[in-house]
Design brief:
- The protein is an all-alpha fold and about 160 residues long.
- Helix 2 packs across helix 3, helix 2 crosses helix 7 and helix 3 packs across helix 4.
- The protein is flat and about 60 Å long.
- The termini are far apart.
């Protein structure tokens, strides 16, 4: 066994695996949002739950916003899954999650926590993780296994 190689991997990771990691993150996030958005658009019970959440959060035009947010999630997630317009889709979905954090998640957090406990609870929110992953996808791109990569190769020759 090559110990130097093992130590190098332990300390620096492997750029050989980078494209597979990006693919896994992009497709997983894309499917999560595409499925969630589809349920909110096409399943009456899920759509009603979304509507009630927006009403409770006092979001203006809750009926319209139910369809808008659900469509952003469905379309953005679908685009992300195949890797087409990945950066704009990631931006739209990150904004979607930031709005969710600001309108529903922050107000539901316990009051009177120490700064460290508050930060712990905040970072535990899945929406925060999604925003961070979208930032990674925006910065690193959709990877080699994407429609965007193929298109860029065709258009930038």
């Amino acid at each position: 066994m090559d110990w130097k190689r093992l130590v190098r991997f332990a300390l620096l990771g492997s750029s050989d695996l980078e494209q597979y990691a990006i693919l896994l993150v992009r497709v997983s996030l894309g499917l999560l949002f595409a499925i969630s958005g589809a349920k909110k658009l096409f399943v009456a019970g899920s759509r009603q739950t979304m509507y009630e959440t927006l009403v409770e959060a006092e979001v203006p035009f809750p009926r319209l916003m139910t369809y808008f947010v659900s469509s952003v999630e469905f379309v953005g997630g679908s685009l992300l899954t195949v890797g087409f317009l990945s950066s704009p889709a990631s931006v739209a979905l990150a904004v979607d999650m930031l709005v969710a954090i600001l309108t529903t998640k922050l107000s539901a957090m316990p009051k009177g926590l120490s700064a460290l406990s508050w930060l712990d609870d905040f970072l535990y929110l899945p929406e925060v993780l999604y925003v961070l992953l979208f930032i990674v996808l925006i910065c690193f791109g959709p990877g080699k296994f994407s429609v965007d990569y193929w298109l860029a190769g065709k258009l930038l020759r």
